[in-house]
Amino acid sequence: MRKVLGSNWMLALLFLGWSLGNLDRYVMNYAVLSITEDLSLSATSTGIVLSSFFAGYAIMQMPGGWLADRFGSRRILIISVVLWSIFTAMTGAAWSLGSILVIRFLFGIGEGGFQPAASKLIAGVFPQEKRARAMSILLTSGGLMAFITPIFSAYVLDSIGWRHMFMYIGIAGILIAVLYWMFIHNPQQAVNVPEATEGKARAYGLQQLFRTPMMWCLLAAYFSIYAVNWGLASWMPAYLTDVRGLSMKSMGLLQMIPSVASFAGLFGGGYLLDKMTGGKEKWAGALSCAVIGLMLYLMFTASSLTGVIIYQSVTSIFMAFVLILLPAIVLKKIPQASTGSAMGMVNTGGQLAGFITPTAIGFMVDAFKGSYDAAFWMLIGFTLVCAAALLSLNYKQGAVMDEPLVPAKVS
């Protein structure tokens, strides 16, 4: 018999799994420097490699969320971890541009169900007033991996190379899947829906999400802020080495500073959001987007490396707040029965941005003969779009919380 764990222990297991998923995503941004050399890739091809994961990841968001709502979080979490671990290990066996594109795409498919399923699990085991903090703890795994990955990559890539590194990460993922099989369990459904109509309720909930203006505003905000997030995460290592002249190890050490800032922003953001009421969070999010845009401008125009790192660190703090704000709104405003589908819908926007932005930046760098200025201006534009989307949020207009999950019959 499997041991039934409390909510905090299940959150710890989610944190462990998502830490490994983030490690693989972040480490690729450093490994790609060696992969580019080994496979003789151009900047545009490198951008396509970085984007290929997000193509699969974006495609799987809504199906992954629907599957979590239909079959429960536990099954989807286990399948997701197993699949992404297999394709992470296979990354180390890539022999050409075509092979690594296919492998990273399938890796994205495998990982796509994790966050919607994890979000549904959090909504099921935590009360509404604690969900933002629980989600912030889960997302701090990204901040932690952003802190560890630069120095981890610098030394591991030098010692064993990128091929063996990906194989070992894949093995670690299989071990985590075993822990999920042993200890994760599905919470009871919080929404009172008759058993005979449960499947219809979930399907109707998905239709409601597509008819809700709030969800489309959130999708636009997700796309915009993740365009900035993944644009920086994917290309900052190359920018610091190509433009600012840093070595791999120096760059790895310096990138730990904004990573610490991001970690603090994620953890503190969840606590602040649980205290905010009455729509104050969307104003705080829009202001944060404006600060991010200003910091990006100061970053690429900075005359010194010290200035670049300072502005990047401030960017990381405010971006972390927006990154936790968006899923917190979903967890608090969407019924638990539809949390997986809702998170899958809005997160599709974020992952489409992850697919488009690295490729777009690679194309711009080639087009402007190594200059990153156009790419930074593009990211600044996305901060303005995100601010506008947040200010457009209207919780009352078609709010899903105010509608029944099962439509009433008209006599």
From TrEMBL:
Q: What is its main location?
A: membrane
User: Which GO molecular function, any one, fits this protein according to its record?
Assistant: transmembrane transporter activity
- Swiss-Prot/TrEMBL keywords: Membrane, Transmembrane, Transmembrane helix, Transport
Is the Iron-sulfur keyword given for this protein?
no
Keyword check for Transmembrane helix, yes or no: yes
Query: Which InterPro entries does the UniProt record give?
Result: MFS, MFS_dom, MFS_Na/Anion_cotransporter, MFS_trans_sf
Major facilitator superfamily (MFS) profile domain location: 10-398
The UniProt entry lists membrane topology as:
Multi-pass membrane protein
Q: Where in the cell is it found?
A: Cell membrane
Q: Which GO terms describe its cellular component?
A: plasma membrane
Superkingdom of the source species? Bacteria
**Mind telling me which PANTHER family this protein's record contains?**
FI19708P1-RELATED, SOLUTE CARRIER FAMILY 17
Q: What is this protein called?
A: Sugar phosphate permease
Q: Which organism is it from?
A: Paenibacillus typhae
Lineage of the source organism?
Bacteria, Bacillati, Bacillota, Bacilli, Bacillales
